[in-house]
Amino acid sequence: MKSLLTLFLVFDFLTSGTHVMIEVWGKPNSLKNAKNLGNITWNSCMMACHGSEVCIIAHLRSQACYLYNEVAMGTVNRTKPQNMVVAFKANATNANGECFDVEPIEISGAIFHYKNTSENPKWIHYTISLSGNQWKVVYRLKTISISMKSELSVSSRDVVKNVKSIGQLATFGPRSNDRDKRRIYKNNYSCSDGTWAVFRSDSSIACYTKLYAVQGPGDFNYTYSKTGCEQQSGSPLAGLHYKEDMSYMNSLVEALKPVKGLDSFYSRIDGIRTTACQKTPTTEYCMSVKGFNFVGQPVKSFDSYNWVTNSSSREKSGYDCLVLVSDKKKPLRVDVKSCTKNSPLTVQLVFCSKPAFT
Ligand SMILES: *[C@@H]1O[C@H](CO)[C@@H](O)[C@H](O)[C@H]1NC(C)=O
Ligand SMILES: *[C@@H]1O[C@H](CO)[C@@H](O)[C@H](O)[C@H]1NC(C)=O
Ligand SMILES: *[C@@H]1O[C@H](CO)[C@@H](O)[C@H](O)[C@H]1NC(C)=O
Ligand SMILES: *[C@@H]1O[C@H](CO)[C@@H](O)[C@H](O)[C@H]1NC(C)=O
Ligand SMILES: *[C@@H]1O[C@H](CO)[C@@H](O)[C@H](O)[C@H]1NC(C)=O
Ligand SMILES: *[C@@H]1O[C@H](CO)[C@@H](O)[C@H](O)[C@H]1NC(C)=O
Ligand SMILES: *[C@@H]1O[C@H](CO)[C@@H](O)[C@H](O)[C@H]1NC(C)=O
């Protein structure tokens, strides 16, 4: 019963999202104070904004992703369809309907800043509105006084609420090709609500969900993670198949680091060494994908895997499960670690995915 309870607590914040990203054609008038995340996909760019406490717009230009806070945003000119794209973060009440048929002229939202205990937490309420051909933002700050104990207890719940928003990402279907329809917003879903669509190079779409605990590492052993994925979204653990999967996972890991205040941890993905190969992990057969069982779509090859060492790694008995290793500033790598223990790093994140419906 205890484990079931924990399971639901974990899932609760994943299903009650507070923000969505709304795409419009537009061009910010300055890149100067934007945060440049470099060459990542548009989906990952929107997701990074969604996952960031401080971002309110994402923008893609010359294959680089730019994120803006309320101060950096300045003005955004509306552009022709298919010209340049921005996505505004909005609180979820802005997007009650599944799609927008008319252009929203006002998008509002609130972001919560609570960096550390020596700084007063504050809300930033903003409204982005279209006037003539330009989007502008107005915002106001609402600081919560640390000295007011009752307010603070409210704000600590709000911190959790803010973390919740990262669990919920709006889902975007493929863009409309209809050039006359001058706007695209939340398009038709290819992935169900509450999941994130990753578009791969072969045109397949995977719908991702994830598990993480609001506090602490969570007891994300292999079995619990597998069951958790199934219960939450009917998805198996996510396999690492394409570089787009890796890029998505990487951006989520990056988004989680500041939330958790950690730069080193594991994320669980699909793949557990077969019982037979636990005895002979170093044979060519056992080092190949044949040496592992996958609960989702079987992984075809480890060719693109960035291993810490290689797939034969088995430092200790029971180190048979694939994990992504986030280790300080090093790029995300794959290793074979304990299926049951948080060891030596803790498991903070679990990826689940299934193919989109088309
Ligand atoms: C961005 O990444 C893509 C895919 O990895 C690559 O084809 C492209 O050349 C890169 N663009 C730039 C400007 O680095
Ligand atoms: C944006 O629109 C304003 C007003 O229409 C115009 O003055 C300005 O030149 C535009 N900026 C860009 C970068 O196109
Ligand atoms: C959405 O944002 C507006 C403007 O800040 C606010 O008035 C409204 O209460 C917000 N809705 C929710 C559900 O947070
Ligand atoms: C906490 O906030 C204060 C006030 O803004 C700042 O001076 C300090 O560097 C912050 N500490 C950390 C660890 O971020
Ligand atoms: C979205 O796609 C589903 C399934 O293909 C279809 O039944 C539905 O009518 C579509 N909705 C819109 C708004 O296009
Ligand atoms: C695999 O990595 C181990 C270290 O973990 C190393 O000793 C071994 O030589 C490597 N095997 C291959 C085939 O690269
Ligand atoms: C996995 O975690 C769950 C939930 O905490 C626990 O009930 C179960 O006993 C664990 N299984 C193993 C093999 O450690």
From TrEMBL:
InterPro entries reported in the protein's UniProt record: PAN-3_domain (IPR006583)
Domain of life: Eukaryota
Signal peptide (from-to): 1-17
Keyword check for Protein biosynthesis: no
Keyword list, A-Z: Signal
Residues annotated as domain PAN-3: 3-143
Keyword field contains Signal: yes
SMART domains reported in the protein's UniProt record: CW
Pfam families for this protein: PAN_3 (PF08277)
Name this protein carries in UniProt: Protein CBG15038
Organism: Caenorhabditis briggsae
